[in-house]
Specification:
The chain is an alpha/beta fold and 265 residues long. It has two domains: 41 residues, no CATH class; 180 residues, Glycogen Phosphorylase B (Rossmann fold, 3-Layer(aba) Sandwich), CATH 3.40.50. It has eleven helices and eight strands. A six-stranded parallel beta sheet has the order 5-4-3-6-7-8, sandwiched between helices. The protein has a two-stranded parallel ribbon with strand order 1-2. Helix 7 packs across helix 10.
């Protein structure tokens, strides 16, 4: 099971009969870096619904808080960029919209400093932080939120820094399952989850992120329609679907071993 092929292929990788990638995006890079075909098996995602009858004026972002570094292959979640973007959207502040950040906070000093800097910048703004939220608190945030923001990969060339892009995006699926409309950076696995203008929006630059968010914020009917389609789309990544696909892969793997054994005889 490959989250992303960070390193060059070696004999250990070649000893496996089957490689399973968590997205088409990851599978493409398995082929480019390892010269191996891989089966695609999307991760199981928790259903955070059902959506409430009325959403609140909340934009939510879920992602771990880590200090960014060009040398670090972990993909940064872009909280600073999103905070800066929301800071300039004063019209939304006046309408009562809030931005909520939640996620695990890495224990290292640099990540702690990063989180402290975000909180200082957010002083006086309708911005709230939820560090290391318990599962029920997280679920309630998903259910309350009307819009979901995702920015992983922005600022990094996708060909030069493929590991910096979102490899799949479980939090996006979770938000969709609760009826939050996703507005996501159009790269990596996000394009496999969200269908632009059907169950959410893609953005490629900050102006588009701002414009699509304003469009949703100012049109409750549009939010409701896209949110409904988001819930339906999220079902593709349910635990039941995952289990069925695991069974299919095991059955396929067994058939391949039987065929190979017969050929040897």
């Amino acid at each position: 099971m490959c989250m992303f092929p960070h390193q060059a292929v070696n004999n250990v990788v070649n000893s496996y009969s089957t490689i399973v990638a968590i997205s088409r995006y990851a599978a493409d890079w398995v082929w480019k870096r390892w010269d191996r075909h891989s089966e695609i098996l999307y991760p199981p995602c928790d259903d955070m619904g059902p959506p409430p009858s009325a959403k609140e004026k909340i934009i939510l972002h879920v992602g771990r808080f880590i200090a960014d570094s060009i040398e670090d292959e972990r993909h940064h979640k872009g909280q600073g960029l999103l905070l800066e973007t929301f800071n300039r959207m004063t019209d939304l502040h006046e309408q009562g919209w809030q931005l909520h950040f939640t996620g695990s906070l890495s224990p290292d000093g640099k990540s702690r400093t990063f989180a402290d800097t975000l909180m200082r910048v957010a002083e006086g703004l309708p911005v709230f932080f939820h560090f290391n939220s318990a599962s029920e608190e997280l679920r309630q945030l998903y259910r309350r939120a009307a819009i979901y923001w995702h920015a992983t990969g922005y600022g990094f060339d996708a060909d030069r820094y493929p590991s910096k892009q979102e490899h799949f995006g479980i939090s996006t699926v979770e938000a969709m399952s609760a009826g939050a409309v996703p507005v996501v950076y159009a790269t990596g696995g996000q394009k496999e989850i969200v269908t632009d203008e059907v169950d959410g929006y893609w953005w490629t630059d900050i102006d588009r992120l701002v414009n699509q968010t304003r469009r949703l914020a100012n049109d409750a009917t549009l939010r409701s329609e896209l949110g409904h389609h988001a819930v339906l789309s999220s079902k593709r990544f349910s635990r039941e679907t995952f289990v069925a696909n695991i069974d299919r892969l095991i059955e396929l793997s067994g058939s391949l071993r039987i065929s190979a054994g017969s050929a040897l005889k």
